[in-house]
Amino acid sequence: MGLALVQSRALLGLQAPAVTVEVHLANGLPSFALVGLADVEVKEARERVRSALQNAGLEFPSNKKITVNLAPADLPKDSGRFDLPIALGILAASGQIDAARLAGWEFAGELSLSGQLRPVRGALATSLALHGLEPPVRMVLPPGSAEEAALVPSAQIWRARHLLDVVRQFLPAGNNSEPEPDDDGWQRLQPAPPAVHTDGPDLADVKGQAAAKRALEIAAAGGHGLLLVGPPGSGKSMLAQRFAGLLPPMSVQQALQSAAIASLAGRFTGAQWMQRITASPHHSCSAIALVGGGSPPRPGEISLAHEGVLFLDEFPEFARSALEALREPLESGRITISRAAQRAEFPARFQLIAAMNPCPCGFAGSGQRACRCTPDQVARYQGKLSGPLLDRIDLHVEVPQLPAADLLNAPAGEASSAVRARVAQAHARALARQGQPNQALQGQQLDQMAALDDAAARFLQTAAARLAWSARGTHRALKVARTIADLAGSEHVTVAHVAEAMQYRRVLRTTV
């Protein structure tokens, strides 16, 4: 009978490899075979496509042997994103639409039984894969998905609401059923990002806690991880929830990558555009939920927090396997998930904010209530956090409990906007000097960019020897000192900057 080719894309991690939907109609016993390593969701497309074509008033070749191949055959395919290209392939192979006019177009969308198009996940990742291709490729997507994909600059995205809206655009030459000019069912979307929303909770709500606020500012300016230690109700969660509002503005490329991961997980909304999100998984989550996994591999909370904040409250209560899985992403900024069938890599450049009590009962050293824990219980509780993991967290800060009088009578603190302005200036100094945040400095670049004067170098060497810091701990203290110098507008790291950085690595060191 006929053969038709329709282009689409699969999802493999954050990549969107090309898939050719090949449809062949032949004489023989009526059947509908779908091959090409298709998941159950894809195989169910046979019934959705059959009903959608019939209910839309189109002809389904039920007296033919239909073979649909999703090439390449060794690439796993999942979700209902191939419904639309399969339907178009059947229509093209049966001569109801012009197969030649499909060249240069790609399609993705799930079909309802009535022919309506439903959104698919990963639309932004798909649009990013098309970015920069020559010649340019035009993409047709359902409502909801098309708006996401149109965020990519120079993307050529068309939105279609119904199968018939797509069919009308590819009818054979000479057909008079052209759509109306103002038909909203078929529309090209211009790459106009949604409006950036206002900031969230303000740091001015937090009274007192000057040391913790200073640590938040340093962490935001240099991209450092932060551990908050204090009794219940001292304000640890309140501080962490306001941290994202201190971070420097996102670039468009950072926003696109962050939004693409959220789209891959089906969590992207317009309100998240150009906003640094705060992911707050519960401490009962598994290691796979935290770092990603499954088959096919899916992003975890650390990837969903890419370019944002990962807040882990009740830090020692997380499973040991989940916490230890954070060690590599904290260093590399990415996570690689390997399975027998496939391998996927997701970015994971997040800022870790962790909060914990100093002991199981929570009141050790609070001065407000007596601690009921024995020294062995305290050591066992803090020992849930391994030395290598703590070594990768740059700032360790104590958040004491404030007396009621100080809490009620204290004036409002400094607003997030004022702190964010200083953070942005320090961050810009670091980018102008080395092209990346201070936390990402490594090796010779760290030695060169830190610019320690002689007195500061001797002071750091003495401190590292007396406090038994590891090489990683020493380098991380140096990175923090570089950030403190940037906040002060200093070209060189002085003794004062190193001395302040030392104070942020000593909270748990006596008991862990």
- What's the CATH class of the largest domain, please? Alpha Beta
Any idea of the CATH topology of the largest domain?
Answer: Rossmann fold
Helix percent reads: 25-40%
Biggest sheet, spatial arrangement of strands: 12-15-18-11-19
Largest sheet: 5 strands, parallel
Distance between the termini: 74 Å
Number of helices: 21
Specify the structural class: alpha/beta
**CATH architecture descriptor text of the largest domain:** 3-Layer(aba) Sandwich
Extract low-pLDDT stretches: none
Total strand count, please? 19
Overall geometry comes to: elongated
Structural domain count? 2
Q: For the record, what is the CATH homologous superfamily label of the largest domain?
A: P-loop containing nucleotide triphosphate hydrolases
Mean pLDDT, rounded to whole units?
A: 89
Strand content: 15-25%
Summarize the structure.
The chain contains 21 helices and 19 strands.
List keywords for this structure.
single chain; alpha/beta; Ribosomal Protein S5, domain 2; Rossmann fold; 5-stranded parallel beta sheet; 4-stranded mixed beta sheet; 19 strands; elongated; AAA+_ATPase; nucleotide-binding; MCM_dom; YifB family Mg chelatase-like AAA ATPase
